[in-house]
Every structure is written in C-alpha cells, then in structure tokens.
Amino acid sequence: MNHEPMHVDTDVLIIGSGGAGMYAAIAAARAGAGVMLADRSLIGRGGATVMAQMTVAAALGSETPDHWSCHYDDTLVAGRGLCDDRLAQLLCQEGADCIREMDAWGIGWARKDGRIAQALAPGHDRPRCVYVDFLNTGPAVSKTLRGVITRTGGIRKAGDLLIVDLVCAGSEVTGAVALHVASGAAVTIAAKATILATGGLTRLYRRNSASANMGGDGFALALRAGAPLVDMEFVQFFPIGHLAPRLIGMDPIMWDPFRYKLGGRLTNSEGEELTARYGVSEDGRYLTTRDVATYAIVKEVEAGRGSPHGGAFLSFEHCGEAALREAFGPVIDRLARNSIDLTRMAVEVAPIAHYHMGGIIADERMETELPGLLAAGEAVGGANGANRLSGNAITEALVFGRRAGVSAARRAMQTRAHTFDPRAARPALDLLTAPAMPDGANTAAMMVSLQAIMADNVGPLRTGAKLEQALDAIAEMTRALGEWPVGDGGAFDLRRVEWFDLRNMLLAARAVAMVALARTESRGAHQREDFPNMNASWQLNQVVRLGDRGMTLGRAGFATQAAAQ
Amino acid sequence: MRALAKLKVWRGTEPAAGHWQLYDVPFEPGQSVLDGLRWIRANGDPSLAIRFSCINANACKECMLELDGKTVYACTARLEPREMRLAPLSNKRLVRDLVTEIAPPAERLLK
Predict the structure, then answer these.
(1) pLDDT at B111
(2) What CATH number should be reported for the domain holding residue A299?
(3) Among A10, A211, B14, B41, which is least packed by CB within 10 angstroms?
(4) Which residue of B42, B54, B59 is in closest CB contact with A448?
(5) Closest residue of A to B102, CA-based?
(6) Nearest to A509 by CA among A277, A163, A260, A235
(7) Which B-chain residues 57-86 have CB contacts (< 8 A) with chain A?
(8) Which domain holds residue A325?
(9) What CA–CA distance (Å, rounded) separates A327 from A323?
(10) How many domains does chain B have?
C-alpha cells in the first residue's frame, strides 16, 4: 500500500458520532460551517449514546417545579467536591433547552397527562429525569439526531473511519490522519477545527456497558497531540450490571430503569438489604448513588455474602405481574425468552464499568489548550467530579456537543486557510502504510488480557500494590505491542484495527493507573483500601500530560476555585 | 467431554474465491453466536473479520450475518452444540469474511 493517501478538506472535523458528535455536527452546520462527521464504527450506531437505557437529567420542571441551580447543587454533591463548576453549571443551565429542542425534533419523550414525564433518580432532590419507553432513550436520541443531520445540509458523514493521530503545526491542531477500515486506505484530513467526541474508556474493563469502540481513543489522541487530561482516576462503575442468569440481546444496565420505575430490593445472600450496612436504607426504593452501591456490593462479596456468581441479588418479586407489565410491556416477554420470570425469581447483578468522569480539559466553549482542538460529551473531564449523577451523561453530550459545534464553526469561519502540512502527517501515515505483518501478537487475546488487568487491579477497589502491578503489566504489554502494526493492512483488517486500538487503550490505561496510584485517599468512584478515608487536602484535580519527559502528573484547581466562590 | 459448537465460517475477500473454515468452540448454554465468534478471535484466529459494536445489547444492529442461510443478528442468535454455518449477507457487498457494506451510501467515505 504505497499509493498516495486520499485527502479531504473540511472546516470542522468531528471525531465520534454519538450524541455529542451528532449534536455538534448539527450546531456547526447551522452556524454555516462545512462539517465532516467521522466514526470508526457506523454513523450513530456505536459509542455510548445508543446504549443509554433510560434517564436524561434536566431541570424542566415538568413534573415538579425545578430550577437549574437545584440540579447543579445535586451534581456538585455527587461529584464529592471535585466538579469543574463552570462545566457543571453549563450542563445544568442549558440541559433543559436541549431536551426541549430534542422534543421539537420528535424524539418522543415519555409523557404523563400531556406533560413530559420525569423520574426520580438516586442523588437528585426531585423527579428530574426524562426518558423514552421502553428502555429506548439511547436509540431514540441517536435516531432523532441522525434524522436532523440528514435534513441539515453541509454535513459529510464517514463511517468506518478510524482516526490514528491528530496532526499539529506547533501546538495548533490542523487535521488528522485516519484509517478507512472498510478499504484499508490511508486518509488525511485538513480541518480548521477538530472536535473530539469519542466518549470514554469503558472498553478497558472486562465487564462493561458500552460499545466495543469506547477504548479511550480521544484521550490518547489528545495526549499525543499535547493536550492535558484531568480526573483520569475516576472510572464510574454502574453497580447493578446484569450478571446472571445469562442474558442475550439486552443491555447489562437494563435494571436501572426497572429500579427507577419499580424500586426493587437489592439484597445479599442472607436476604439482608444490601446497602443498609453502608449507610443507606432503601426500603424498596432506589436511593443509593453509584459510588456507594458499587462499594457495598464489592464489600459484601468480599465478606462472603455475595450471590453464587459473585454479585448481589436484585428482586422485583413483590411487585406483581400487573405492575411489571404496565411498566415494561414487551421487555417482560424478551426476559421470558431468556427464561427470566421476575415474578418468581431474583436476578444477580454486579458492578460493571460504565462511564468515565475524567477526560480532556476544556473551557465553557469546549476549547482545549491546543488551538483548533475542542472536545465534547463524555470525552470532556471535570463536569462530574469524582462521581457522576444518574442522568447527566446524555445531558452533557447534548449540551457540550452543541457548544462545541458553535465554537468550532466560529473558529473555522475566522480561519482563512488550512494550515495542514502533509509533512506533519508523515509519522502516522508511515504506521498506516507499514508492510504486512502476518505473524505477531494476537491482538484479540491482548485485549482480553488488558481488560483483566484493569478489572482486577484498577477496578472499583484499589490498593497501591495492585496499581503498581497494573502499571508494570501495562508497560510490558506496550513493549509486546511493538512499534509497528500487525495484520495485512487490507480491507477490514481487524488485527490492524485492534493494534491501533491497543496503542490508544494502553496509553489511556496507563494514565488511569498512574493518577489512581498518586491519589492516596478514597473519594467517589476512586476507593483505595490502603487509604480508606476522604482527605480534605486531596480536594484537588490531577492533570496528566504526555511530553518529551514521558507521562507527567500535575494538579489543577477546579475544586479549590469552586470552594472559594 | 464438553459439548462443542462447530462453527463453519465463510472466509475471503472475493465472493467467488472464498472458503469455509471450521472452528470448534466450547459450548455453554446461554451464549450467543457473537460470543462464539469473539471466542475464536481471542483464542486462536484474530484474523477472522466480524463487525460489531455494542457487543450484546442488540442496539447497534451491526452484527448481521447469515446463519444456515437465514439473516440474523449474531448477538441475539443462540449458539448451539451442533454445526452452524455462518456466511456474510448475500445481498450486500462483501468486505471481508463475515463483514459486508451495510452502511447507507450517504454515510460512507467512498460512495
């Protein structure tokens, strides 16, 4: 493959077509910019948005009077003192507007007596979460945005396009180099503004609730281009991910909506309410925040009071068939096909990697430290601090996506000419045009090993020794991966795709383990068994960047700024 | 002896020049065909091309293929302890192995 790469010029390049990327594309195109919307999977099908089961939090005041500042207060409390208050405020202030815009675009939010219904979710002080029945919020968000994109001119869509590296001129991001997965061709893209809307890093873990393409690509792209990341130690585990009996064709986080609507009982093997020992008496309601519930389940399993497969029991037996049918209609039949009858049995649940609080540092315009580089959605760090509130993920995707699109368009309109220099694209192109390497590592097996290392050593409960082991293993795997990609480089060469994925995943994994090792306290989603208490001197945000001296750690003062105001 | 699912998988990049490859996969009740294909890749043959994104949630709708001549989603079709014949969609352009071009033309880089 020595022929010249295909080249594309665009005003705005958006990487990732989940909720954030699609909303950004619409906003940028409406502001008059030409947009290229790229996704390594198919447009609007991969990513995390399409997987969302139910809640989207916004102070609509549709069910109960509400104000954005109440949502903001709840977000800050859930974030355990570490939220970037500028971003948290933006999320809460503009969330309701995006929800109404989605409503006008025909998403079909569930309604009660003509008004948009709002469910009460743990950590919120009132019913605040809108949804689309049944378990259909994510697919409905994706489908609606895809429809609007089709009706909006000026957006070029390119699925199967995996971004290998950003291209810079000094510190300015001027475009990217990509692998067109479907053909194996190399592609260069010149862009006046580039938005990373690549989501989080849940794929680093064995059990996870997001798509196969959530491997922290955006974090690695940002690091290699020189942009800093914040709060990388805070990986949210969703406490009640499905564990047993085996279930196919259902998202493992599906029990969240069941708990919103029906409450349910979470118990240990002795039939005791599981969270009671950990300070929360739920009594059939759904009240426990994700960090506390995850900790409680892991600790109960450790104490020998877990379910047979190593989790907790979740039961809706007391609800009765009529209530189950009314709340979930056809889903009850899908469960029956998996031999699950909720009127007669409990299911087993356990924590599952779900969301990343950390990410790329961006300001209120979603601009990063690097001119020409913006971020949106889960890829942005800081808004949710040490623990994200239920329902804030889709909201931030929409709000941050819209902001990023507007800012990127503004920059593109003010930039006269592309400053993309093909010579700066050479190192990444060399990787793409590397000769076939038919032997070499089994990339699929390496992926499984990395997921095991992260789940076992950088999971919900951490120790210094385990984190050091993880860093050693990650360094060893990085050496084993080597400098040059494996595979033949042809059409849909999954080995080569996985090689590029591992290159990103290992960098993201290292960032998480390194900052987790440095934080010698327990806070939110970061729980250290060797430092079990929260420590006021740690009310600060850790920043990681990649430079000439390798990966380095620093600190930012979001939390202290917020405290001072 | 553990039961085996015998997956007979179509391999190739040209519709007229492919071949069938047989893989033995340890069978556990409750698995999906996609679980079996992912097992093959991690435990022996990472060169096998498949397309999937959401893994097991039937949300991305990317894992369509033909099982014994019928179109299914690999993530919702049950793995069974017998020979199962897996082929790419016959009405879509072949990319490689079980992967076909399923994106609408307006969502492709090359139309």
Answers:
(1) 74
(2) 3.90.700.10
(3) B14
(4) B42
(5) A42
(6) A235
(7) 57-62, 73, 75-76, 78
(8) 239-353
(9) 6
(10) 1
